[in-house]
Amino acid sequence: MSASTKHPLWSPATVTAVSDVLAATNDGLTGREIDHLLALTGVADAEGSNKRERLARALLARQARDGASNCVIRFITEAMAPVRYAQRLEVFSRRRDDLNEVLVHAGLRVNEAGQVARGPAASTLDEAARHANSLRAELRRRGTHPQVLAYCTREILTKNAFHASLEAAKSVLDRLRQLTGEQLDGSQLVDAVLMPGATGTPRVAVNTGTTPTETGEQKGFAMLIKGLGSMYRNPTAHDPRLNRPVSDEELLELLTTLSMVHRRLDHARVQP
User: Fold this and answer.
1) Which one is predicted more confidently, 107 or 72?
2) Residue 269 is inside which H or E element, if any?
């Protein structure tokens, strides 16, 4: 957006939400970085009980004084300058995604150059998640299981769908080992803990197993996990990324399926 144009005021809610992203408690700008960027953009510091409140008050005061949102746009542009993230691509990606979930409500976005630009507008949270063009936003909208995200968030942030699928596929087998204490892997692990076996009772049961239908469901659940491993863990572990492309849409479908698996395990009965 042109710095020479006087841009309309942003709503206090938008400025506050932007500040919440950029000055997030755990992984946002530090107090020293905020000091530097406020000085660089000519925005006077403000009092606040925390750095998020301090930044929001400073930007809102300058915006009100100018009668324009240029100061907020410039602050975002300086904060998101790619050169600041040369060795921290995942931080840039996370902040950009989070900012875009906010800015999409105003028909704006942060582009790959870290600049504020025009974009599609959204009026609902679901629309915002879709329009923000953020894989993480879509995963949150789908309610992706935290056990899945714990294994592949870093890969998602670095836009590496190939390795994200590999790490996510590992999550179910690792969960089975954590539940049972077994040290096996792959099909051997699945057979040992999910198949009925000689006793007729699996160590990890997803139902009561009292009817043929439930027995079939238990076996199908085990075969599903084996299939996911054969499709995503084994090939990606052995094939070069060049020969095994994974699209964002395929990754979303995989993580959604793995979330279903983890939710069944959340309620499974585990035998010692």
Assistant:
1) 72
2) strand 269-270
